[in-house]
Write a structure and sequence with these properties.
By secondary structure, the protein is mostly beta strands. The protein is built from one helix and 18 strands.
């Protein structure tokens, strides 16, 4: 590395006074340091996604194939450097029935396992730095369809971002019988539907940076009077709870750490 000294400025006491080169002795020593940050160029390489259900969450993880000397992928790089990810998911319900059949069954069955979806209208997207994310499965019977893309700085202009291709098209179908179904979707069975569809409930989520969120759920009786509300942040271990009591004014009380 070659370094050329162009000017000298005296910044003592908050000043900014140019100093002539002739005022310095010939034995002046200059110490320089170069800082760098590696950015892995994974381009549009195929994303390998996995999903597992545990304790009410759909845990989605991902990796990227790492090749050497034009060989087939030998492993999956778990942490590409200076790369972020956008994870997007949408929900498709499974309550549509074919009433023309003698024994009506839900749509996922009479469509031969094909699940139509679109991310264009009602999808959730978060930007992440890690290689996994836990989606709370508070849904009715149906399926969660998810996809991923990379976001990394432009090596020619770090103020710009380069967005990779999505792992799944914006609109299309996935099939329950596909061997790779778990890499792009998860089916919510009748048993996994929230509270088995036995109560009236309403669920909402507010997101912040890096996938942090606060989610709230309210439960209602048969005449749609609120009976209980719960709020929890994914960065906290204890939810807050507000319970309603039958009566003329439907009184409520709040309890923390339920």
């Amino acid at each position: 590395m070659e370094t050329k000294l162009l000017a000298i400025t005296n910044v003592a006491n908050g000043g900014s006074t140019p100093v002539p080169f002739t005022d310095f002795p010939e034995n002046l020593m200059i110490v320089t340091r170069v800082s760098n940050e590696r950015v892995d160029d994974i381009g549009n390489s195929s994303t390998y996604l996995t999903s597992t259900f545990s304790n009410g969450f759909l845990n989605v993880g991902w990796g990227f194939p790492c090749t050497m000397a034009n060989q087939v992928p030998i492993s999956y790089r778990t942490i590409p450097r200076s790369v972020e990810y956008e994870l997007e998911w949408t929900y498709v319900d499974d309550y549509r029935l074919d009433l023309t059949q003698p024994n009506p069954v839900a749509s996922f069955h009479y469509d031969n396992g094909a699940i139509g979806y679109t991310f264009a209208n009602n999808a959730t997207r978060v930007r992440l730095k890690g290689m996994s994310y836990a989606i709370p499965v508070i849904y009715q019977r149906g399926a969660i369809i998810f996809r991923l893309r990379t976001v990394r700085p432009n090596p020619d202009n770090y103020e710009e971002m380069i967005y990779g291709n999505w792992s799944l098209a914006t609109t299309g179908t996935v099939n329950l019988n596909d061997a790779n179904f778990g890499q792009k979707a998860y089916r919510i069975s009748a048993q996994q539907a929230h509270l088995g569809d036995r109560l009236n409930w309403q669920y909402s989520t507010n997101f912040a940076e890096e996938g942090k969120y606060k989610h709230s759920i309210s439960y209602f009786d048969g005449v749609l009077k609120s009976r209980q509300s719960q709020t929890r942040m994914n960065s906290a271990s204890c939810p807050g709870c507000s319970a309603g009591h039958p009566g003329l004014f439907n009184r409520s009380r709040s309890v923390n750490g339920i």
